[in-house]
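Human:
Focus on the backbone:
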Amino acid sequence: MLLGLSGLYGAANLVSDPQAYAAPIEAPEFKACGEARDVATGDLLDVNCCPPHSDNIIDYKLPPVTKLRIRPAAHKVTKEYLAKFEEAIRLMKKLDKDDPTDPRGFMQQANIHCAYCNGAHDQVGYKNRHSGAQFLALLPLPQVVLVFLREDSWEIDR
């Protein structure tokens, strides 16, 4: 039965249009950052969450891959793992005081969310339309958005 269903769906794909019908998400205009709004009420937020502008952009370099690491489910972590994770979080929070402009700090992460999900940047082609989908436009910029913790050394990486 399953083989028959997969054959049916495979055949259906042969007659469907392989092109996506959705419009692509365009990157925001980074120099045009405005006021952020509460998503539910539309009220202005009393914060300036626009990222700093710089013409000196540093290319992101991936760290060397040493081994495949799999993060365990939260309910299965060991005490040692949890202690290392809590230390990494403490270091991220410390960055807010030591270097408030470091994108790895919690406040900068909140600012990124605020700027791209609360309307400080208009979605190109859709004025006054703000959604979390805009955040996807930043995925090619891991040095700006994607912060992760290397579990082999528990260093904070960009």
In short: Confidence is low (pLDDT under 50) at residues 131-136, 138-158. Residues 65-158 form one domain. The helical segments are 2-15, 79-98, 106-117. The CA atoms of residues 42 and 156 lie 35 Å apart.
